Amino acid sequence: MEKTLEKQMKYFDTHCHLDFEQFDKDRDEVIKRAKENNVEYMINVGTNIDSSKKVIEIAEKYDFIYSSVGIHPLDVSEYNIQDLKEIEKLAKNRKVKAIGETGLDFYYSKENKEKQKDFFIAQVEIAGKYNLPLIIHQRESKNELIEIIEKIKLPEKVVFHCFGGDNQLSEYCNKKGFFISFTGILTFKNAKNVKEVAKNYPVEKIMVETDAPFLAPTPYRGKRNEPFMVKYIVDEIADLKMIDKDLTADIIFKNSVNFFEI
Asked: Which of 113, 119, 83 has its CA nearest to residue 100?
């Protein structure tokens, strides 16, 4: 009976980086392992122009993998704003389901704040033009990001990926109707603030992701992350919310399918 229930569970890794070099030696095996562990779909997320081309190539090899294209805030130093025309071209591909990841990161990079803002706004416009969801990266930039969001028109669907334990930002996202997505950080014992956010945020607005190859959940913490590990994040959300694990998996899976229009 246990095995039958397990087979019915479906998972959706809404944010991974299968194009990264950490998967060069065994990418196909990693994808196969995910499928064997009931990961029905994956969004392979681009971080710059070359990465965005590569995630599309991978997505075109597998009918259950889709992609997102964009220039990460930590990559904007390598480009001019005109280079986003290439992202706009890639956005027309049938396997592209979102724009991003884009946003602001002032943790690692403070010297190009204005350039990051310009690239973020331009990618928001591309998402709106093609009616695609927006995947936002935020680190140490909450106030600046909110200030921009309040001034511009965002696409209908927005997700803050790799959500941290910021109650003020989670309340803002909830008020705006944004989705938030949790990574393996949620399973860490010391992640009290993130757990609190997950416990209180509406389950209908939650998605899960591995952000592979980074942030492997417990019990794989410190190792290379893979899409098959996404189930541990779903289980943690179920435990925090005290909801049946099958039901939690089903709700989060449907959230993701609807968000990305798979």
From this structure: 119
Give the integer Cα–Cα distance in Å for 103 and 117.
8
pLDDT digits (tens, 9 = 90+) for 182-232: 999 999 999 999 999 999 999 999 999 999 999 999 999 999 999 999 999
Task: Please give the average per-residue pLDDT across 167-171, as a whole number.
Answer: 95
Q: What angle do CA 82, 86, 89 make, to 5 degrees?
A: 130
Amino acid identity for residue 97 in this structure: K
Does 227 map to a domain? yes
Which residues share a beta bridge with 214? none
Total tally of structural domains belonging to the chain: 1
Give the CATH number, domain containing residue 130.
Answer: 3.20.20.140
Q: Does the model's pTM come out above 0.90?
A: yes
CA 217 to chain centre: 15
118 in any annotated domain: yes
- CA distances from residue 196 to 162, 190, 218, 226, 240 in whole angstroms, order as listed: 15, 12, 18, 25, 8
In angstroms, the CA 110 to CA 116 distance is 9
Q: Is residue 162 part of a domain?
A: yes
Strand-by-strand arrangement of the 158-160 sheet: 11-16, 39-45, 65-69, 96-105, 134-139, 158-160, 179-182, 206-208
Domain annotation covers residue 6: no
- Residue pair 218/232 in contact (Cβ under 8 Å)? The answer is yes
Task: Give the whole-number percent of the chain exceeding pLDDT 70.
Answer: 97
Q: In the predicted model, what is the mean pLDDT of residues 165-175? A: 94
Q: Which domain holds residue 253?
A: 12-18+32-260
Residue pair 252/12 in contact by the 8 Å Cβ criterion: yes
